[in-house]
Amino acid sequence: MYGCALQHFRSAEVPRLFAAAGFDYLFLDAEHTSFDLETMHDMVAAAAQTGITPLVRSGELLYSLVARVLDIGAQGVIFPRVECPDQLAEAISWTRFPPHGKRGFGVMAPVLDYEPRNFPEIVEHLNANTLVVVQFETKLAIERCDKLLDVPGVDVAMIGPSDLSISLGVPGQFDSPVLTDAAMRIVEACGRRGIVAGVQCRNRSQGIEWLERGMRFIGTGSEHSLLLEKAQETVAALRNARQSPGTAKH
After folding, report:
1. Helix axis angle, 63-71 relative to 37-50, nearest 10°?
2. pLDDT tens column, 22-70
3. Cβ partners under 8 Å of residue 56, min gap 6
4. Cis peptide before 99, with omega less than 30 degrees from 0?
C-alpha cells in the first residue's frame, strides 16, 4: 500500500486529490500538527467518500483520542512511540468492540451513510476492518520488537525514520547502516509473523529504496512537501527553458 501524510492544509480537497492520484491511504497527523477534531472529521469523510483509506496518527496512546477518531470514520489508527507491550495491548483493545476489545459504541451515523444497520453488523464489520499500525521510533522499541510484534492485533509495523535515527545516534542520516540494520530487523520480524512492514519516508527515492528492501506499507512525504517539490520542478523547468538557446524572448 502506498500513502502520504496530511499535516498542514486544512482542506477536504486534499484527500480527494490523493485519491485521484492513486494513493491507497492517507494519514492525518494528530501528533505533530494543529488539526482539530472537526477538521479531521471533514477530511476523513472526504477520504472515505472517494475510496482512499483514512488513517489517523494519534497524538498519544489515550482512549479518548483513539475512540473519537474511530467514531468519526477513521478506518485505522497509527500508534506512535510505542515501547511497552502491555501498553500496546491496551491501546489495541480500544480499537475493537467486546469481546475482542474495550471500544465503546459511539459510531456516528454519517460513517454508515445513514443506512439502517443493526449492532451486530456494525460491530462485526468494524472489528474486522479497523487497521492497527504501530510505529517503531526508538532504540528501545527495536530492542523489544519481538515482544511488541507478538501482541495480538498488530496489522502493520511502521518505522519512523526521523525519530529512530535520532534515538540511534545518527540524526537525519537516513542511509546510515545503523538505521538500515534496525529497520531490517523489523522487516524480518514481521515476515516471521505475517505482519506487514512499513515506513514513512521523506521522499519518493527513499520510498523506492525501502520497497526494494521489503517494506510494503510505504508512506511518501506529505501534502506540503509534494506541492513544494512539484512547484520547484516547474519553476526550474521554466527558468531553464527561458535561458535555453532559441527560446523566444519578450
Report:
1. 40
2. 999 999 999 999 899 999 999 999 999 999 999 999 999 999 999 999 9
3. 27, 28, 30, 40, 44, 69, 74, 76, 77, 78
4. yes
Residue 40, in any domain of the structure: yes
Structural domain of residue 69, as residue ranges?
Answer: 2-243
Candidates 91, 103, 110; CA nearest to 47 is 110
User: In 3-state terms, the chain is what percent helix, strand and coil (to 5)?
Assistant: 50, 15, 35
- The catalytic residue positions are 32
Domain count for the chain, please give it: 1
CATH of the domain at 31: 3.20.20.60
192-201 residue pLDDT tens: 999 999 999 9
Under a CB-based contact definition with an 8 Å cutoff, are residues 218 and 207 in contact?
yes
